[in-house]
Amino acid sequence: MGKALVIIYITAAVLLLFLISHSPSPSNKPKRHRRLKLRSNFTFDSQPTHHEHIPFDPLVAQIERQREDKEWEKQYIDTHHHQLIHEPAPGQESQPEWEDFMDAEDYLNDEHKFNVTDRLVLLFPKIDVHPSDGFVTDHELTDWNLEQTRKEVLHRTQRDMEVHDKNHDGFVSFHEYEPPSWVRNSDNTSFGYDMGWWKEDHFNASDIDGDGLLNITEFNDFLHPADTSNPKLLHWLCKEEIRERDSDKDGKVNFNEFFHGLFDLVRNYDEESHDTSHHSEDSQESLARKLFAELDKDGDGYLSEAELLPIIGKLHPSERYYAKQQADYIIQQADVDNDGRLTLKEMIDSPYVFYSAIFNEDDEDYEDHDEFR
After folding, report:
1. pLDDT in tens, 272-296
2. What mean pLDDT is predicted for residues 155-164?
3. Other Cβ atoms closer than 10 A to 151
4. I need a surface site. Which of 7, 58, 70, 95 has the fewest CB within 10 A?
């Protein structure tokens, strides 16, 4: 049955490509194609400021990962060199050298090697799996995006583990772990210094088996607690929220502390179902009080760590949240017949939606490339 579906996909794709290539184009609207360009999302031991977009295409992700690994290796060596001889590392003051990756960009733009239409034809049956019915749904696309993200996140975790695992035993102890540079380069009066994200409580909460060491799974949770299923780490997240929001330092969150901060995060998470432009300040407060009362199970007028647990996923969105955002945007842009799902033809007709993250948006003089049909 599986082989038959593959044959059907290939036959349909070949027929579709034939029809597209022989269909007339409007003479008054010439095609404009963008040149694919590798992105630079590389950061070295710094505090993240935004959520990074993960490439839709695993092949593009692999090329970008290879470039990022090379830059990481260069800066990692330079940084440790600086620590040893106490002199400025030359690599820290220079811009990334992209010459080594020009061949990769040529690869992306060579019609004989990387054809956007061919790539979409190849990837379509890998996305259309639940069920395999010739349509890509929001759920299927979300699962696909999430799979690509998890591969990327785990790769970066493995790279970070190489830095912190000083004795190379496959584990990281708290003694081995070095806080991020934004902590090391600040003092105890600097903004953010007292955040618990790099302290021993955070480490211990990530240590599921309590052996004092973090394996790769635990270390991945340590670096990305929003995606964990570890109840100790989720409890720690709730504890951190209370510590950061507790302005009167009584160990709990009252309504005012909830309303001025936490409620905005919850509302933003649910922004698709909340039209804030039609709500006054009074109505917002009313909504906040309703949610506060639902969370305050013991009715004491405060939110404890356990009572914050039902909304912790909204305060710290997981990768699935961002994967769904990306899927929703793609379907919104490419779903021509507005049926909430994508056919292979709709995907081929809107290739820029899937590959826009690596198109050179700054280049106004788009070149014509038949490979980007």
Report:
1. 544 444 555 678 899 999 999 999 9
2. 92
3. 15
4. 95
Mean pLDDT for all residues in the chain: 78
pLDDT, tens digit (0-9, with 9 covering 90-100), for 296-329: 999 999 999 999 999 999 999 999 999 999 999 9
Cis peptide before 131 (omega within 30 of 0): yes
**What's residue 115's pLDDT?**
82
147-161, 223-237, 268-282: the lowest-pLDDT one:
268-282
Compute CA distances 85 → 79, 81, 89, 167, whole Å: 10, 6, 9, 22
Cα 160 to Cα 176: distance, rounded to the nearest angstrom = 12
**HEC sequence for the chain:** CHHHHHHHHHHHHHHHHHHHHHCCCCCCCCCCCCCECCCCCCCCCCCCCCCCCCCCCHHHHHHHHHHHHHHHHHHHHHHHHHHHHCCCCHHHHCCCCCHHHHHHHHHHCCCCCCCHHHHHHHHHHHHCCCCCCCCEEHHHHHHHHHHHHHHHHHHHHHHHHHHHCCCCCCCEECCCCCCCHHHHCCCCCCCCCCCHHHCHHHHHHHCCCCCCEECHHHHHHHHCHHHCCCHHHHHHHHHHHHHHHCCCCCCCECHHHHHHHHHHHHHHHCHHHCCHHHCCHHHHHHHHHHHHHHHCCCCCCCECHHHHHHHHHHHCCCHHHHHHHHHHHHHHHHCCCCCCEECHHHHHHCHHHHHHHHECCCCCCCCCCCCCC
